[in-house]
Amino acid sequence: MPRAYMFAKQLRSVALAWLACSFIFGILLALLFLQHRDSEKHHIQSIAEKVHFELNSQIKEIDEFLNQAQSLDVSCPPETLFRLRQQVFKNPAMSEIGIVNQKGQLLCNSYERLNPPIQTTAPIKADGLRYHGPIISEYMEASAFVLARTRPDGYEINVLLPSDWLRHTLELEQYSGLDFIALVDSQTGVPIILKGHYSLPLNEPLFPIKRSVQAQGEFDDGQGKYLYAKPLASLPKLAIIASSNSLSIFLVAPSSLSVLAVLYLFAWAALSFLHHHYEQRQLSLKSQLKHAIAKQQLFNVYQPLIDAKTQNIVGVEVLIRWQHPTEGELGPAYFIPEAERSGAIVAISIAQVDTALEELAPLFTQNPDFKVSFNVNGQLLCCQEYLNTLYKAHQQINALTIELTERDVLSQHQVQQTLEQLVHQGIEVAVDDFGTGYCGLQYLQSFPIDLLKIDQSFVASIGLDNLQSPVLNAVIEMANKLDKKLIAEGVETPHQAAYLVSKGVTVHQGWCYYKALKINALKKITHTNTALSLANINAA
Ligand SMILES: Nc1nc2c(ncn2[C@@H]2O[C@@H]3COP(=O)(O)O[C@H]4[C@@H](O)[C@H](n5cnc6c(=O)[nH]c(N)nc65)O[C@@H]4COP(=O)(O)O[C@H]3[C@H]2O)c(=O)[nH]1
């Protein structure tokens, strides 16, 4: 074989394997990416939920105090100052507590009573729990925010919370894989506590945040980041937002990618090798088959057809074998498909008919109606040389049958014409493996078919409770209605044989009687069989 040709074949295998691997691994990569993206989203969401839960509990605790403080004396006597200081010591999140009158003047705080009061905010109008901020606390010189509640008498109790302290207790520093995590004003989007790079545009579609949201790419100049935002249950004007680092959500971990890349290369190499190996094998099978035909390594075996009532051999099915020089005797499944692909089936089948004629000749003198059946496919029916061989054989074999599968019968339009010619010449047409072709049954009426060979699978179902069991009886019934002859294939047990006879199917083929035999073995048994049948006749 020329080297360039071999090289081109190898290259083709590599390219085909590459295409197949790229397709499969493309899908795998997409799945891996989706799985990674989902788990990253889940990770971000669970961080936001955790921080949300902790902050919510802290605010609830502070609000409990603000509610209790409704009863404090707003003229700020020493007992009130004591209560305020005590609370600041108890809860380190609070750095200062103040009492403000309706005009927005601070009357006292946890440090002192202010005389005169200091104007700290606009006159108090709002109700319920609320926050102000972020503000810069004069004492701490750091950012803070204020939680406040208005009493029924219009006075306000408020608490100053330093942002750094909250950031610390919420342990925001540990979330380094995120783009940012923040406590923000749900209306305006202004961050109050922040860890990371806050880059959200402070308008729609994200703000104002009314309920939990997940968003991707629509809020951050299209960089494809993912964020999860959730307003605090205790104070919905504040929300927690966590956002991904866009790289971490889109990039699958390099370790997974390297594993995938190694698998990809391995699969590519293995597939290239297997494909090339398969092609080589096919190629060598083709040339070996050529050699086998030339060296006459193919030979016929004959499986007897038995009349189950008399136990007489009434004919044979001709089957092929290959005496391979190194592999031993090979069955047709090993080489018939390749012979059909390469067209060698024509030469093989012509030689088979010629050999059968020669080998079986003595049997025709004993019994001129000895049945001989050949396996034929659609390709052979289109070959005039093969048909001529059949016609020639028919001059010696009175009862010549060809077996076709349902698929072959229906394969080409011209098959019907050929079959009609064959039948016209007196050659019988049988459908092999009948019942397995799923072809519908109309063709039985339009094609000149005389004989149906019941497939082994139906025979094997006799006595068993399986799906095939009812089909056998239906096949037999239908054949009787259409006036077709029947042969049962694959009869392996006396029980199957008896059942078939009870249903009127009397011609059997199968290991219950004989396996396929070489010519000498066949001659021996037909000799005895004839003697036996003569003895039977004489006895009768
Ligand atoms: N388990 C079991 N098997 C049994 C029994 N009785 C017979 N068989 C096997 O069933 C197959 C019957 O042949 P097929 O249906 O025409 O099916 C044939 C036929 O389609 C094809 N074939 C065989 N010889 C030729 C040939 O010369 N030319 C062509 N074109 N095809 C052939 O190969 C197929 C297989 O042939 P084989 O391997 O010889 O296998 C044969 C035979 O050995 C039994 O009781 N139990």
UniProtKB/TrEMBL annotation:
Reaction(s) catalysed (UniProt annotation): 3',3'-c-di-GMP + H2O = 5'-phosphoguanylyl(3'->5')guanosine + H(+)
Keywords linked to the UniProt accession: c-di-GMP, Cell membrane, Hydrolase, Membrane, Transmembrane, Transmembrane helix
Chief location category: membrane
Keyword Cell membrane on entry: yes
Key word Membrane present: yes
Pfam families: CSS-motif, EAL
SMART domains, alphabetized: EAL
Chain segments annotated as transmembrane: 15-34, 247-271
EC annotation from Swiss-Prot or TrEMBL: 3.1.4.52
Compartments it resides in: Cell membrane
GO CC terms in record: plasma membrane
Protein name in the entry: cyclic-guanylate-specific phosphodiesterase
Upper taxonomic lineage: Bacteria, Pseudomonadati, Pseudomonadota, Gammaproteobacteria, Alteromonadales
